[in-house]
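Postdoc handover notes: sequence design on the structure in folder B. Input tokens:
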């Protein structure tokens, strides 16, 4: 055995033994165990020992793709997201794609919803099937969910596809497998083995970190029937002792993490694992005492790189992070909720197109005319909607004056505000983004200002129409940037106009179309202080202390504060978790999310629970130790 082999981790050695025997494998490892390091070692060894083979590595996010590409590079290695990988497998077979897609759109319970599109056998005759960020099935455009269903059906129907994939990649390695859709696992473990070609599929991940509802979670059934051979990685290189011992109490799969054998691991100190610190804070009463928790901890919450406060939802974060007014516009507009109530009523009882030429106000009047009692209530605002309308009569007047067809087509959702996918310019051009064009435009202003302040002048000039040809231009540019910096309290519309006039960020067709097509939303946004958009931008760029509990998966920080407030979201219940009762699915989902949150801490972990029950406190004392539980 050569020296390179001697340096391999024992888990990697075990994996390579399974590979040599022709067996599919699974590396299971808890948070901080170094699964990506093992994945990179496996890739490197396969490239070294099998020089004629190509490897596909597929993962869940673009960020993970870039991380793996940064660690290992080879012409025989292809790294991509799951969706891009699947599309690359099937995109060339347009005739077959069209046949399968029509089948998936057909029947009484179609697997892909056709919407209002009439399904015919020649509906895609002159159209190419395309994969983008949005879904327009009638135009042959499919999105994330559809590509998974379509690819699974293609591999099921066409055995030749299995042979082609096996011929192209001898090894297919799946990073963060727990987030992979069940249909993808079916392709890899049910359809591919039916090919006569030889190949290996390997999975890397942690079932306790399956916090997305569309992921498979685990592949235990395949392990039980020896279709996949499991290798467990039980070391911990990230967390101090108290944190990983707490995390061990949350695990349900038998993995018990221990200190790393590597004395140079980040959580080691002079050859011994650091103890770290854990705290469970709780309070009672009407009002949260979160600020007292922060004060008691004494952390530097301005250190945004190493200190994170984790909340369950963006809604809980928005007021603290400074963009609450924007969140209310995109997520809590009672008039838009009333509009949706009216649209749903018409869909159930009438022909929606009958009202296309009417205003929203005329539509309401026609529906309410001559009605009383329950019939009138069905086309009137609910109590919650009425409270909003009473507080904003001017918004109702604006809405009533608008064409009903255009108004009902105006889609507004908080994802258009806080869509935080990191995409390259090429990806944005190909697939687009959920973020609405108004927010995109304001963020363009933010970006050019940020680039200038960071003195990244070449990059700045690529993102602006401002021309610098002489020294006077540089002075004028400096004054323009300073002027925008002083406009934080001004309405954002004034900032947009100034940025356009100074040629820092020109108003384009997309922005103009937004103003024309979404006039109601534009009227709500134009008066919002620029500061709200600045705060939102900083939050989404990760330059604030705040983060959602889902967003930090895969990351690590020196100090982590977890706020245990479900924010009215019934998918999660922290009380259920600590009392181990309630809906089992909700308990399991909450347990995994809490596990992910706790294991982000490299040094200190704090948890805050407002108004816990006696049983919650009792469980907290068992998990954290009574000496680490603090009543406020």
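Designed sequence:
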């Amino acid at each position: 055995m050569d020296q390179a082999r001697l340096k391999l981790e024992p888990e990697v050695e075990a994996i390579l033994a399974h590979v040599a025997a022709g067996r599919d494998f699974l590396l299971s490892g808890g948070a901080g165990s170094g699964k990506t390091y093992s994945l990179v070692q496996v890739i490197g060894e396969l490239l070294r020992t099998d020089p004629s083979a190509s490897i596909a590595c597929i993962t869940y996010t673009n960020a993970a793709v870039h991380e793996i590409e940064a660690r290992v590079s080879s012409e025989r290695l292809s790294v991509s997201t799951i969706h891009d990988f699947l599309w690359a497998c099937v995109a060339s077979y347009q005739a077959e794609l069209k046949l399968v897609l029509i089948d998936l759109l057909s029947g009484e319970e179609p697997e892909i919803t056709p919407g209002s599109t009439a399904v015919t056998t020649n509906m895609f005759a002159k159209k190419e099937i395309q994969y983008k960020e949005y879904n327009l099935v009638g135009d042959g455009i499919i999105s994330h969910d559809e590509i998974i269903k379509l690819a699974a059906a293609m591999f099921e129907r066409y055995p030749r596809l299995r042979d082609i994939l096996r011929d192209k990649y001898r090894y297919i390695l799946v990073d963060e497998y727990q987030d992979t859709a069940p249909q993808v696992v079916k392709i890899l473990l049910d359809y591919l083995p039916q090919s006569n070609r030889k190949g290996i599929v390997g999975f890397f991940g942690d079932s306790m970190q399956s916090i997305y509802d569309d992921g498979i979670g685990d592949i235990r059934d395949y392990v039980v029937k020896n279709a996949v051979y499991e290798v467990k990685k039980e070391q911990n290189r990230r967390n101090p002792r108290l944190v990983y011992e707490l995390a061990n109490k949350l695990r349900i799969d038998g993995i018990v993490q221990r200190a790393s054998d590597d004395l140079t691991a980040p959580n080691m100190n002079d050859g011994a694992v650091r103890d770290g610190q854990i705290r469970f804070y709780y309070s009672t009463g009407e009002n949260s005492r979160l600020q007292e928790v922060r004060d008691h901890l004494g952390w530097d919450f301005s250190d945004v790189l190493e200190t994170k406060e984790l909340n369950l939802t963006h809604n809980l974060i928005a007021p603290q992070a400074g963009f609450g007014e924007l969140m209310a516009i995109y997520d809590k507009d009672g008039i838009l909720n009333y509009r949706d109530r009216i649209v749903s009523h018409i869909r159930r009882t009438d022909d929606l197109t009958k009202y296309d030429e009417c205003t929203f106000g005329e539509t309401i009047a026609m529906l309410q005319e001559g009605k009383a009692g329950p019939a009138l209530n069905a086309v009137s605002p609910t109590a919650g909607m009425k409270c909003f309308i009473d507080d904003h009569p001017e918004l109702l007047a604006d809405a009533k004056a608008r064409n009903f067809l255009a108004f009902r087509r105006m889609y507004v959702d908080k994802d258009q505000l806080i869509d935080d996918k990191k995409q390259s310019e090429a990806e944005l051009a190909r697939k687009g983004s959920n973020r609405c064009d108004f927010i995109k435009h304001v963020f363009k202003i933010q970006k050019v200002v940020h680039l200038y302040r960071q003195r990244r002048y070449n990059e700045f000039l690529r993102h602006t129409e401002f021309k610098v040809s002489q020294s006077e231009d540089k002075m004028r540019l400096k004054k323009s940037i300073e002027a925008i910096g002083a406009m934080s309290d001004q309405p954002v519309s004034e900032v947009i106009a100034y940025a356009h006039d100074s040629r820092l960020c020109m108003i384009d067709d997309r922005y103009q179309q937004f103003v024309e097509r979404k006039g109601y939303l534009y009227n709500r946004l134009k008066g919002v202080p620029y500061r709200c958009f600045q705060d939102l931008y900083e939050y989404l760029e990760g330059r604030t202390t705040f983060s959602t509990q889902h967003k930090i998966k895969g990351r690590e920080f020196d100090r982590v504060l977890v706020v245990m407030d479900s924010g009215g979201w019934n998918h999660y219940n922290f009380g259920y978790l600590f009392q181990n009762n309630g809906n089992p699915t909700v308990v399991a989902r909450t347990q995994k999310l809490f596990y992910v949150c706790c294991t982000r801490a490299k040094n200190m972990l704090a948890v805050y629970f407002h108004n816990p029950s006696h049983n919650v406190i009792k469980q907290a004392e068992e998990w954290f130790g009574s000496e680490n539980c603090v009543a406020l």
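Context for whoever picks this up: The first strand starts at residue 25 and ends at 29. Don't rerun without checking with the PI first.
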